[in-house]
Fold:
Amino acid sequence: MKRIIIDREKCDGCLNCNIACISAHQEGSNFYTVDLQDPDAQARNFIKYDPQKGYLPLFCRHCDQAECVLSCISGALEKDPLTGHVQYDENKCAACYMCVMNCPYGVLKPDNKSRTKLIKCDFCDDKPDDPSCVKACPKKAIAVKEVSL
Amino acid sequence: MNSNFSCQTCASADQKLETFISKLSVETSHHRMEGQSVKCGFGLQGICCRLCSNGPCRITPDGPKGVCGATADTIVARNFLRAVSAGSGCYIHIVENTALMLKKTAASKGVLKGKLALAKLAEIFAVEEADEHVRAEKIADMVLADLYKPDYVKMELVEKMAYKPRFDRWKELGILPGGAKSEVFAGVVKTSTNLNSDPVDMYLNCLKLGISTGLYGLTLTNLLNDVMLGEPSIRLAPVGLRVIDSDYINIMITGHQHSIFAYLQDRLIQDDVIKKAAAVGAKGFKLVGCTCVGQDLQLRGQHYQEVFNGHAGNNFTSEAILATGAIDAVLSEFNCTLPGIEPICEELKIKQICLDDVSKKANAEMMPFVFEEKESQSNDIIDAVIAAYQARRGVVALNIDGDHGNDDTLTGVSEGSLKSFLGGTWKPLIDLIVAGEIKGIAGVVGCSSLTAGGHDVLTVNLVKELIAKDILVLSAGCSSGGLENVGLMSPSAASQAGPKLRAVCESLGIPPVLNFGPCLAIGRLELVATELAEAIGVDLPQLPLVLSAPQWLEEQALADGAFGLALGLPLHLGLPPFVTGSPVAVQVFTQDMLNLTGGQLIIDDNAKSAAASLDAIIEKKRKELNI
Structure:
């Protein structure tokens, strides 16, 4: 499966991955027009800063043993057997947020506006090429790599 | 020299240039585009602020305000006004030097080649001195006196130069500029840490800077130069890399201050200098045009046929021109002198001399131009260039693409030469517009960039779309450099125009894209527009006239753009000027400006749809004029 691999040494914390992610999920937008002040604007990736260790990019790992999938009571989260990516079906979601509580990396969030759905990386599966965040990283701190399941 | 550069070069509308550059063994801007292809989203939207040590702050969903509380609207407006101030400062530097040059030339009873321009300025400024030198000095003094006023004292020549309906509107809006240099200062102060936070106040300030930039930095620089260097006159001239003749000692000039070269260019063709060149095996000296000062020289080329070999290309052609190996020296006095030329000069042993420290290149020799020492300085420059010629010729390989460019670019178009071409009156042009033979006019101006599809790609495609719609295009700036090299300024380009414009062009023997030369000549377009409006008896926003800076590059272009908006003209840009992160900015530029000045910003990087929008505006204005 393809997975986003992080090289934290290279991250400068520019947040371009955040913008790319928000733009990818804001229909018809690009880097010039993406509305970052829209209440729906929410990135699926995060950069944390540690004064000792520097920047830490946090991306959904689409885990092999995905705690979010295991804890999902409604079947909204499932691991795609072909791609290995964890997929989310908003229609099946009961918004219990067991997934949010169980994610070991803290990358799953409820949506800010309505708190009725999950904001989660979809690997930009509907787009050609690499995920938008990877294409937008000027430092190549994140890259798509093929890993065995 | 970095030999690990990308082998992938960006596209150019100029296919021959694209091929030439792709085969070069030196790195150019065209090679560096790929490495810079990932852009910062905050920068693009203008929502990064680094005015204080709490920053840089970026506007994000989790951080909708900077640490100080500045919103996206405040941050974008501050960044934009800073850029416009800097851009204005650049043009005001040019007009200041030009006015000082005229003052000193007049005081020393030097040659004044442009009698018509002098008479025109004397009339506008109401100067009645009989002696031409006294008259010219007084004119220069009046310009300088205005430039040096404080910001709280309004400049006096604005009312004399501006079209009355425009002046009245500017007065109502409270945007008449004080001293132009002080206005730059005010713009910088206003945008510093925790000062102005009112976006609308800052955008009005931009319009004010636009007026001082446009009337002084652009319009007056042209007219003052015309007095010293001669008025443009229409002729056909060669353009492109083909203008470089390796039998001569070649000097490439870059910058915007033509008058700095005035003495030198006459000196280069004097017998003793030609003898010096002959002594080292060259036929003499030639100036090769590059960037706007080259366009300016091309515009006045009628007066400089012996020393000037033609305009080779725009800012992003400069590295390729040097890579031909046939250039022996670069003389620069302003932008666009790319830092990228430095390693090429180093490798190809090309002598770099800077005549104005604002454009000092790291490896160039600094020879600040001093009017009183111009004779000895010119001799020093000539000796240094001859030494470079001797050291490099025979050692450095030549690689001139003699097929690049063309020999029949129509040049020398100005407000004066165009009017005389039409028989001394604008009536024939107005009649053609009224009859619909020419649907409208588009000023396609400004820079060249490597974005929006590649080098000159959007500019050339947009112009092709516009002329196909019977819209006459006037160009000024590096845009001209691209348009002429691809042949759109040759009379044969008429075949690419719509049927009506084609017929007009073919009957007059002119191309559908008229070459006004450097970006400074945006001021000449303003004169044309004003004279047309005056002749018809309407205000500028009513004219079927649009502006486009499809590939604007720099801060100066933003100051030009502010002038266009102050004039009340629709202004198209290919890429947004780093303002889209602010809803207020978008509202002001694309909507509210219509009520303020009549101007409007249109952003579109697609040639077809941008041309359609501009066409629709022209159609609308025609309807409103009942034509």
Remarks:
- The longest helix of chain B spans residues 72-107.
- Residues 241-392 of chain B form a domain with the Rossmann fold fold (CATH 3.40.50.2030).
- Chain B has three domains: 72-229, 241-392, 408-624.
- Chain B touches chain A at residues 38-42, 44-45, 47, 58-61, 64, 72, 575-576, 580-581, 583 (CB under 8 Å).
